[in-house]
Each structure stands twice: as C-alpha cells, then as structure tokens.
C-alpha cells in the first residue's frame, strides 16, 4: 500500500470512529445500526468493514493491547530498568497516548457515560490487560506479584488523573507528558518526610 493510500485508509478509519462515537452519544450504542454508520460516513457497509471489524471497534477504536515485544521488554527489566517508569512507558505506548487529543479522550468519555455496556467492556479489557502486565512484570528480578500490582496501581492512578487533566485543561499538553509530570509529582509526595 502506498503512503497516500495508507493515509487515506487512516483518515477513513478516523472518520468512521468519529461518526460512530457521535452516533453512540446521540442515539446510544443500541440506537444505531452498522448501516446507519455507513450512511453517516458516506461509505458502503463493505467499505466500512474494510476499516473496522465490528460496530464495537468502530465506537471504541482499537482497545489497548500488550505486544509480544512489549511483554518481552518488561520481562527482561526494560525499557528503563525502573519498575514504575517501565510500567508507565508501556501503558502509555499501549494507549497510543501520543496519538490521541484531549477531544478524543473527551469523546470516548462521553461515549462511556452514555453507554454503560461499553464502559463495562472497556473496564473488563483493561483488567485483562492489567493481569497480562502483572504476569510479565512478576518475571523480573525486581518485582514479584505484589510489587507488580502496586506499580500497576500507581501507574493506573496517574494515567487516570492525567486523562482527566487533559480533558479539563487541553493546554497542559499530550497525555504522555502530563502522565510523566504527574509521576514526578507522585514521587515528590512519596519522598516528603512530613
């Protein structure tokens, strides 16, 4: 596929996700069909399924996944050699944190608020991803199951708070920058002897 064809495909996929999320907020997830979505985007059903595998994927986009390479890097003690930094780096990479805008996060938040069944689906997926992370982190020399779960809890809280900040104050910058700044703040708080 040429670069311009890849760009067009990415643009079409983005338009599908945007339209699906708008429909999910306006009509509810059960309130529109794949045919309604195809009409909203101006494509055929077949073309729609060339870009997304399901109605759910159209609304949620691709849910974060841990790649084999990321898993191997975590097991070997990387990518930075510091447990919490490694978890944050991999989680942000899984979330494609540098690709999303505050408007994207806000739209997904609105979709979840309007469609509890999708929120449950995302929550379940994130919990499964967390268990995968713990499994791979626990194989490290510097982490057992308990330390891995604590590192994941710390990072989860930081990422959640960072998303809220990005939605409320887009000028704070991208999610990855905000999360790293919040990790620094968390370290300062934990180091405070008072």
From TrEMBL:
Portion annotated as DNA-binding: 33-52
InterPro entries in the cross-refs: DNA-bd_HTH_TetR-type_CS, Homeodomain-like_sf, HTH-type_TetR-like_transc_reg, HTH_TetR
Keywords, in A-Z order: DNA-binding, Transcription, Transcription regulation
GO molecular function, one term: DNA-binding transcription factor activity
SUPFAM superfamilies: Homeodomain-like
Residues annotated as domain HTH tetR-type: 10-70
Organism superkingdom: Bacteria
Stored PROSITE patterns: HTH_TETR_1, HTH_TETR_2
Ranges annotated as spanning the membrane: none
The protein's name in its UniProt record: Transcriptional regulator, TetR family
